[in-house]
């Protein structure tokens, strides 16, 4: 088992390095995911235990937390209306696309609705079993949604930014560079800085994990890291640490691909494309409206409204830029809403 995990990580790392060489967006995430998925389908020998995603969540939370300022905490209540607007869009989309899939593709209503939930593969799949839906269809649709969004998203956002966004990110880039160069914890030893951040974030992540709440490890590692940032003025983690987390997240997703899941996807191509298309529409609508209101810049609004994993989106956003604290906050709210609220709405209506 350990040999398989090491083998999978090696394949993921090679995939990430190749992706960086050919200049794919978010290379260590997308490259490791594609490489592991390819070998998993061919050999069925790729394996990564899903609980290792806790590691990626803690690293992601630690990284995001180091970008949080006191102003971010004060401004977060201003996001409430935008979060409510996004959750409304996701809810309406779930019912509209769910009913279309139910009507035209002979899939029972509960299965169709759960397939359109913007949540995690594991969480939604477990909910589908509990609610008596066809869990294999739900899991396949959720997998297509996650992988499809992660593959499309970097190119999609780049396209939209080229069309709509004014070139106003220069100042932000300079501020980030300045932040990275500052001395951590009153010392020039970056090993001490990174170790302190990882220890504190890990304590928070393990607390969040023990509470058994969705994205708990990400949420609490982010909180602990941001408190440390404000109290001790620590500086950002080494970039290579974030790349390692991206490889872990990418290999976990890639290892879920099998020949059986590939066969199932062939029967669900049209429903999956319909679902992905609807999420891209939501992405544009939310991004345009929220950026016009000045709540978020366009890039951050697009990342925040992308229904992939909270950890995965945060890692990609860290690679491509964006207001990570706000993105992570909205993504965590989406995860909680999907797991706590949406299943009860579906159960009540069906």
TrEMBL record:
InterPro entries, from UniProt? AbrB_dup (IPR017516), AbrB_fam (IPR007820)
Q: Which UniProt keywords apply?
A: Membrane, Transmembrane, Transmembrane helix
| One Gene Ontology cellular component annotation held by this UniProt entry | membrane
One family name in Pfam for this protein = AbrB
Q: Would you kindly state one Gene Ontology biological process term found in this protein's UniProt entry?
A: regulation of gene expression
The reply on keyword rRNA-binding is: no
Q: Where are the transmembrane segments?
A: 24-42, 83-102, 109-129, 141-161, 213-231, 243-262, 268-290
Source organism's superkingdom?
A: Bacteria
Q: Does the keyword Transmembrane apply?
A: yes
Q: Which NCBIfam families match?
A: Gneg_AbrB_dup (TIGR03082)
- Protein's recorded name: Membrane protein
Q: What organism is recorded for this protein?
A: Enterococcus saigonensis
